[in-house]
Amino acid sequence: xxxxxxxxxxxxxxxxxxxxxxxxxxxxxxxxxxxxxxxxxxxxxxxxxxxxxxxxxxxxxxxxxxxxxxxxxxxxxxxxxxxxxxxxxxxxxxxxxxxxxxxxxxxxxxxxxxxxxxxxxxxxxxxxxxxxxxxxxxxxxxxxxxxxxxxxxxxxxxxxxxxxxxxxxxxxxxxxxxxxxxxxxxxxxxxxxxxxxxxxxxxxxxxxxxxxxxxxxxxxxxxxxxxxxxxxxxxxxxxxxxxxxxxxxxxxxxxxxxxxxxxxxxxxxxxxxxxxxxxxxxxxxxxxxxxxxxxxxxxxxxxxxxxxxxxxxxxxxxxxxxxxxxxxxxxxxxxxxxxxxxxxxxxxxxxxxxxxxxxxxxxxxxxxxxxxxxxxxxxxxxxxxxxxxxxxxxxxxxxxxxxxxxxxxxxxxxxxxxxxxxxxxxxxxxxxxxxxxxxxxxxxxxxxxxxxxxxxxxxxxxxxxxxxxxxxxxxxxxxxxxxxxxxxxxxxxxxxxxxxxxxxxxxxxxxxxxxxxxxxxxxxxxxxxxxxxxxxxxxxxxxxxxxxxxxxxxxxxxxxxxxxxxxxxxxxxxxxxxxxxxxxxxxxxxxxxxxxxxxxxxxxxxxxxxxxxxxxxxxxxxxxx
Length: 625
Ligand code: ADP
Ligand code: ZN
Description:
- The protein is of the alpha/beta class.
- It folds into four domains: 3-196, 3-Layer(aba) Sandwich (Rossmann fold); 204-387, P-loop containing nucleotide triphosphate hydrolases (Rossmann fold); 407-510, Winged helix-like DNA-binding domain superfamily/Winged helix DNA-binding domain (Arc Repressor Mutant, subunit A, Orthogonal Bundle), CATH 1.10.10.10; 530-611, HRDC domain (DNA polymerase, domain 1), CATH 1.10.150.80.
- It has 26 helices and 17 strands.
- The chain has a seven-stranded parallel sheet, with helices on both faces. Strands 8-13-12-9-11-10 form a six-stranded parallel sheet, sandwiched between helices.
- The two termini are 42 Å apart.
- The structure holds adenosine-5'-diphosphate (ADP) and zinc ion (ZN).
């Protein structure tokens, strides 16, 4: 079997993705490899396929226990014998696994780096044929990165101690020059093939929403996407708890994760999320390392992250299966002020002065970069890619800003009238009264309160209510006004000193959503959600297949996305396979999965098609109505 046949038979895919083939070929030609590819690009297959084709065993060094377990489950499900050896096993289990491994049972063995120093393991490794050592998350070897693992430094020595030097392949998603050079040197890669693919994740749709009513936005979003799995990141544990309570009370199947929960609860909540028992999770940035859940359809940031690196990593947990997914950042100027305050109050007592200065400068720069992302009216994808040093060409037509037309209007004079009006109310009334007064509305309530006697009464009668609402909300953001939080919230004056300077301008920003650029569609293929490829009947079938997948997942205690990805289920709806051979044409259905699950899915599809004869399931299907 050649590489492409192996890909088809075991993983059910027809073609390699960018970079994969080159890596596989280099390894099969006995060369070392360093591959730098973004999350979701498909790194695992790059070493798993050669591992199947090389004569001996492949050892995969991986830092995270949960990741190993997931990978091994997925491999076994694809009919590939694999095992992991880490501290979650008892000594007995380890000895048994090593015994089976020595007898040739496994092609792929995942180990934690600490294990490489273990005597029993070394003995084992010296007595079997090891064709390749794969270093996953290879950036952990770099002292430059945040994820430095001292035990990764032992890898080289381990390799030296083997009777025959195996091929060494290293994989990471971290692209900085320092990390790359560190990996190359520290691992002593021998004339390696270095493959770096683009960092763009085309299936991710980025957007920034400038809003204050974040909870409502999130409620609405979840209501519109009820069956989808998503992560909502908050800056603090308190935010997590509050939002969790709110959503939980409204009946959303939601769980939470932060460092204030016990280990046990954290583990349980994480599992509930992974197994789709509660498809939505609210978490601090403590959550996510080692989460391989591929069907996360959206990642919402409730607060602005501290740096672009953090944002890209967290947002990147969406859409690992390659399906279209959304990354939404909820932005409010108040967050920036809080972040700045946190920086000002950061404790530097253990750091000497010079370092303190440097760290402060760095933190401020990071924050400014994020602020720039939130405020830009340009293409968001390009903003990210340029930050990571990649060349870009023209707006992507696949992000929030590319689909918006921004307008900026000087509203300084109007803003001053708003201030006058709020001053006249002496901060006693709410938004409705202030708006009505400014617009000169003829309402009994205004006469009763005598606001129709104000100088500001009717001063802005030429503006629409919507426009004035936007103005007032942006003035609140800017700190000129504030709205109290009680039940009957009233508008009060904030700090208006800047407005007294006649050079200060109040620029109001509005936008309209616009249609994706039709002309560009052919060039860059605007990607809609892939379930959009389905008709509503197709979507019904997709839901039925998802249920079946969940049922099987329960029976086998496996995460549903390991059984089949969303992408595979959608492809089943599009291709409507009626027998095993057609089923094999579905992307993601390999020989072993066909044997294990094929019949049950075929039956479900058959049943659906008999019940609704002649039904059209996908948009591309022709004339079957
Ligand atoms: P990474 O480790 O780079 O984040 P994974 O190895 O987890 O990415 O792969 C992400 C997803 O892409 C998985 O669901 C995997 O099965 C799928 N995938 C990988 N290679 C291909 C391919 N050639 N064709 C289709 N899907 C693929
Ligand atoms: Zn764009």
